[in-house]
Amino acid sequence: MAFLYEYGIFLAKVATLVVALAIVVAIMAGAAMKTRQRKGQLSITDLSEEYQHNQQLLQQQLMDKKAFKKWQKAQSAVKKQQQPTLFVIDFNGSMDAKETDALREEISAILAVATSKDEVLLKLESGGGVVHGYGLAASQLARLKQQKIPLTIAVDKVAASGGYMMACVADKLLAAPFAIIGSIGVIAQIPNFNKLLKKNDVDFEQFTAGEFKRTVTLFGENTAKGREKFQQELEETHVLFKDFVSQQRPVLDIDRVATGEHWFGYQALALALVDQLQTSDDYLCSMFAERKVLQVKFQLKKGLADKLGAGGASFASGIWQNLQQRRWW
Question: Which residues are tagged catalytic?
Answer without folding.
Answer: 161, 213
